[in-house]
Amino acid sequence: MFNEGDKVSDFCLNGIDENSNEKVFCFKDLIKDKKNLILYFYPKDNTPGCTTEACDFRDNMNFILKYAAVAGVSPDSIASHKKFQERHSLNFPLLSDPEKKILTLFGAYGEKKMYGKTSMGVIRSTFLITPDMVLKKAWRNVKAKGHVDTILKYFENTD
């Protein structure tokens, strides 16, 4: 599991860009204009919490892009991502990790508790990665509502 200050290994995942074009994304493709990358992991397309979080990123993209590019990752299929992106006019890439390899590398997949029950699943998490592939900031086990505001405040305080 990567921790703040760690060098992140390069990775590639299938996904869709902001225009729903399918392609393979590697880390270098996600870093635009040598900015940081916000890589956020979420459980499932078109669920209430994941929709709230994705739409918050979408609605704040003009401000966020001053500091970082954004990409979302879940185990969902490309077809599911396309429906999710289309339905909510998402303006950033969505990557598919059905084998949960990248999710696991970042510690965003594992044991979690919900309603008193323990199960394996995606742990909603967000990571800020520098262009030289260093994990600058990790937000782990976050709540969907208000999380993007936390990221915005972080950028305002580090400006």
From TrEMBL:
Keywords (A to Z) from UniProt: Antioxidant, Disulfide bond, Oxidoreductase, Peroxidase, Redox-active center
Stated name of the protein: thioredoxin-dependent peroxiredoxin
Keyword Disulfide bond set for record: yes
One GO-annotated biological process of the protein: cellular response to oxidative stress
Enzyme class name: oxidoreductase
EC number(s) stated in the UniProt entry for this protein: 1.11.1.24
Species this chain originates from: Thermodesulfobium narugense DSM 14796
Function recorded in the entry: Thiol-specific peroxidase that catalyzes the reduction of hydrogen peroxide and organic hydroperoxides to water and alcohols, respectively. Plays a role in cell protection against oxidative stress by detoxifying peroxides and as sensor of hydrogen peroxide-mediated signaling events.
Superkingdom, taxonomy of origin: Bacteria
GO CC term (a single one): cytoplasm
Domain Thioredoxin: 2-159
GO molecular function, one term: thioredoxin peroxidase activity
Entry coiled-coil feature ranges: none
Subunit structure: Monomer.
Family the entry assigns: Belongs to the peroxiredoxin family. BCP/PrxQ subfamily.
Catalysed transformations (reactions): a hydroperoxide + [thioredoxin]-dithiol = an alcohol + [thioredoxin]-disulfide + H2O
Active site (record annotation): 50 (cysteine sulfenic acid (-soh) intermediate)
